[in-house]
Each structure stands twice: as C-alpha cells, then as structure tokens.
C-alpha cells in the first residue's frame, strides 16, 4: 500500500510511544487518525507535535476510551492498519487484580471493532511481560515462541494482564480474517516528545540522582526505533501473524550507570548497587520491590534478531539511547 491507500489509526494519541509513531507517519505524508479519551485531549496531541515542528494538518481525531465500546467502530472507518499502543498502565499497584479484566476488555473493544469493520492489519503493542521465563531458565536465546506461564511465582498481575491481553488478541484473530502482529518491548527509553515522559525514564533519573540501584536487567529499546518497528509491522506483508521481540540490547542498571559516568564525569551517578538478595527479601513486603525483583538474578537472554531478520529493523545501540534519555531529562530540569 502507498501512503494514499487508507488511514493509519494510532490508539492512545497522548502516549509516549503513540506520539512518536504519529510524528513519523505525518512526516512521511501519511493520513493518520488517533484516538483520545476526550476532545480536550486533542490539544495535548497538537501541542506535542507543534513543539517538534510537526504540522497536524494530516491528523484526524476520534474520541474513544479503552474502557468502553463506544466510538471504536466509527474510528475504524477507512483504516488500512490499526497501530494499537493504548494500554492500561500498572499505576501504583502492579498487583491489582482488576488490571487483568481491564486489559482484556480493551482488546475486545478495539480489536473487535477492527474485525467488524474489516480492517486488514492490526498491530498491537504487547510486552516482554508476555515473554518472561522463570528465573531458573538459563536459555541464552529466548525467542518469540516462548509465552509467560501465568502461574510463574515471580510475576505481577500487571504482567499477567499483558499476557492475557495478547493471548486474547491471538484468539480473536484466529477466529477472523484480520492480520495480527504483536510487538513485545521491554524498557522503552529515549527522548520525550513535547515533554511527554515515558513510564520507564525513571531508570535514568535514578542513575543521574545517585540513588542506590538494583542489578536489574532491562531489554532496552529506543522509542524512536520502536515507533519504526510498529510502522514496519503495519506495512510489511511478511509481518502478518508474527510476534516480534523489540529490543536493541540488554543492559543492567550498573552498566547504564557506567555509560552515564563516562558521559557526565562531574555528576554523582549511582555507584551503590543493592544486592539481589535484599531486593528479593524486600519483594515479599513491597509491590515496587516485587516489580524490581522480576528483573534481577536472571540467567536467560532474549534473542531479538527476528525483527531485524524479517523486517529489516535497525535499532540504535542501547548506550546511545541511555545517553539521549539522560540528555532529555537534564534539559527538562528533571535530573
């Protein structure tokens, strides 16, 4: 399809990732529609794009909320591909059991509407939470064929919500003619768009502020590269019916700290590392520490080569992403 053959619908237009996808599509002259939860949110998106010098003349808006079926069928009119980035966030309580039905209902509302309206391609942002082995796993190349065990004792309900939402999407796709593609990112870092921060840039904020850090392992992906991967997944015929792990490289927080100390020698970047055993003990009593505990004492590694091999995706080095994230935080006066 060419850029005149229909509209790209990007859900959750005020989001960190969605903003970058919208920006890249508009810069290519594509017709784009995005969903917002209220009309007032349209100005947030316009302002975000304007701050980057991107005109919004090729952008349409549709009002629709993940928690309701209203508006989704109308949003699908004339759409060539849905890029579904909108998702309920874990908030303060990653153990909240209501996260699971909320995530599943969002898939039912959005993917259900796409199927009813005959949209040919549906790209869904999932998560490496749906691709999380047990800590006993020593596989050096965990790939897209692996699915998280919902009974894995280490995981949170937020992680289960990602798993069940993606499972439901594949079930719905199997019962229809729609071409589903799922993208599984880990830690999404990179510069903000118009001041819209990511939920994971706190990693770099902690490092720059010299806070004690765990030996957490992050599958890093730059938001700019992740946006490109979603567009490739929407356009490439060979993406249909595939899952793609989205990571440039794995990095531990101490490794990120090393990168930032070299880049900012005058800053007191974190040096104190919290032992894994302490993180594990604290995880029994604290949900935030349980979240961190899912990322420490890991012996497996993911194989992120499929997106490169099948789609020609070329992500930048993780160290570059970490520095760019830090530069953005510093410029914003956050760190």
Kindly describe this structure.
The chain is α/β, with parallel strands linked by helices and 335 residues long. It has a domain at 7-190 and 221-248 and 301-317: NAD(P)-binding Rossmann-like Domain (Rossmann fold, 3-Layer(aba) Sandwich). 38% of the residues lie in helices and 16% in strands. The protein has twelve helices and twelve strands. Strand 2, helix 2 and strand 3 (59-63) form a beta-alpha-beta unit. It is globular.
Please supply descriptive tags for the structure shown above:
single chain, three-stranded mixed β-sheet, alpha/beta, globular, 335 residues, Rossmann fold
Low-confidence stretches: none
* N/C terminus separation: 44 Å
The fourth-level CATH homologous superfamily of the domain at 7-190 and 221-248 and 301-317 is NAD(P)-binding Rossmann-like Domain
Q: Which architecture of the domain at 7-190 and 221-248 and 301-317 would the CATH scheme give at its second level? A: 3-Layer(aba) Sandwich
Mean pLDDT: 94
How do the strands line up in the largest sheet?
3-2-1-4-5-6-10
Briefly note the CATH topology name of the domain at 7-190 and 221-248 and 301-317. Answer: Rossmann fold
- What is the rounded Rg? 19 Å
CATH class of the domain at 7-190 and 221-248 and 301-317: Alpha Beta
The biggest sheet, with number of strands, parallel, antiparallel or mixed sense and barrel status, is: 7 strands, parallel
Secondary structure: helix percent: 25-40%
Gross morphology: globular
Give the H and E element order.
EHEHEHEHEHEEHEEHEEHEHHHH
- DSSP strand count: 12
Strand residues, percent: 15-25%
Structural class label: alpha/beta
Please tally the helical runs, counting DSSP H or I stretches of 4 or more residues.
12
């Amino acid at each position: 399809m060419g850029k005149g053959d229909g509209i790209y619908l990007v859900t959750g237009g005020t989001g960190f990732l969605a903003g970058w996808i919208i920006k890249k599509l508009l810069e290519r002259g594509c017709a784009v529609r995005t969903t917002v939860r209220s009309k007032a949110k349209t100005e947030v998106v316009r302002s975000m794009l304007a701050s980057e010098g991107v005109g919004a003349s090729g952008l349409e808006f549709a009002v629709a909320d993940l928690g309701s079926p209203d508006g989704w069928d109308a949003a699908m009119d004339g759409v060539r591909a849905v890029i579904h980035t909108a998702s309920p966030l874990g908030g303060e309580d990653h153990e909240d059991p209501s996260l699971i039905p909320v995530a599943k209902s969002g898939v039912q509302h959005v993917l259900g509407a796409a199927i009813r309206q005959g949209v040919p391609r549906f790209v869904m942002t999932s998560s490496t939470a749906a691709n999380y082995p047990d800590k006993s796993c020593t596989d050096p190349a965990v790939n897209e064929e692996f699915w998280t065990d919902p009974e894995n004792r280490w995981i949170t309900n937020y992680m289960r919500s990602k798993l069940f939402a993606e499972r439901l999407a594949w079930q719905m796709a199997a019962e229809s003619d729609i071409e589903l593609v799922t993208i599984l990112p880990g830690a999404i870092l990179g510069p903000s768009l118009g001041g819209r921060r990511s939920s994971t840039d706190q990693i770099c904020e902690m490092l720059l502020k010299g806070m004690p850090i765990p030996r957490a392992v992050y599958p890093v992906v730059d938001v700019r590269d992740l946006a490109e991967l979603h567009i490739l997944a929407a356009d490439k015929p060979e993406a249909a019916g595939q899952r793609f792990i989205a990571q440039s490289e794995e990095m531990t927080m101490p490794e990120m700290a090393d990168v930032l100390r070299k880049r900012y020698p005058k800053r007191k970047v974190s040096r104190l590392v919290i032992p894994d055993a302490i993180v594990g003990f604290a995880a029994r009593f604290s949900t935030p520490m349980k979240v961190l505990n899912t990322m420490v004492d890991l012996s497996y590694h993911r194989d992120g080569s499929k997106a490169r091999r099948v789609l020609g995706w070329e992500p930048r080095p993780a160290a570059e992403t970490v520095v760019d994230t830090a530069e953005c935080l510093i410029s914003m006066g956050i760190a």
